[in-house]
Amino acid sequence: QVQLVESGGGLVQAGGSLRLSCAASGTIYTIEWYRQAPGKKRELVATITRLGTTTYTDSVKGRFTISRDNAKNTVYLQMNTLKPEDTAVYYCHDGFRDYWGQGTQVTVSS
After folding, report:
1. What is the pLDDT of residue 75?
2. Contacts of residue 82, Cβ cutoff 8 Å, sequence gap at least 6
3. Kindly report the CA angle at 76 between 32 and 102, in degrees rounded to 5?
């Protein structure tokens, strides 16, 4: 089983940036970033296939960029122009085998 470990979360002011990383213990294929705010359903934020095709939810388009380094088995989520409504626990998910990471907290203060 492939282990996924997220990192890079933290506290940032509105308008700031963070870069999340999802490091895998083995080969990964399609990877998704999800987020879950308190009292809300888990939401798909961005997806990247092994070949680099990306998709984003409308609320992050133009602000977030998902990328990957297959040699390092790592996927990144660059988050710019952060807003308080981006506050959530962010999870990476192996869409092919349904593995989840433990999540990393992102808090954006106004």
Report:
1. 98
2. 12, 14, 15, 16, 17, 18, 63, 106, 108
3. 60
Return the structure tokens found at 79: 């988050």
Q: Residue 96: what pLDDT?
A: 86
Sort 90 into a burial class: Cβ within 10 Å, 0-12 / 13-18 / 19+.
Answer: buried
Q: What residues contact residue 32 under an 8 Å CB cut-off, 6+ apart?
A: 44, 45, 46, 47, 48, 92, 93, 95
Percent of the chain topping pLDDT 90: 95
The first and second tokens of residue 77, run together, are 């989520």
Residue linked to tokens 């602000």? 63
Amino acid at 38: P
Q: What is the per-residue pLDDT across 20-67, written as a single tens digit (0 to 9) for each?
A: 999 999 999 999 999 999 999 999 999 999 999 999 999 999 999 999
User: And the tokens for 49?
Assistant: 């296939």
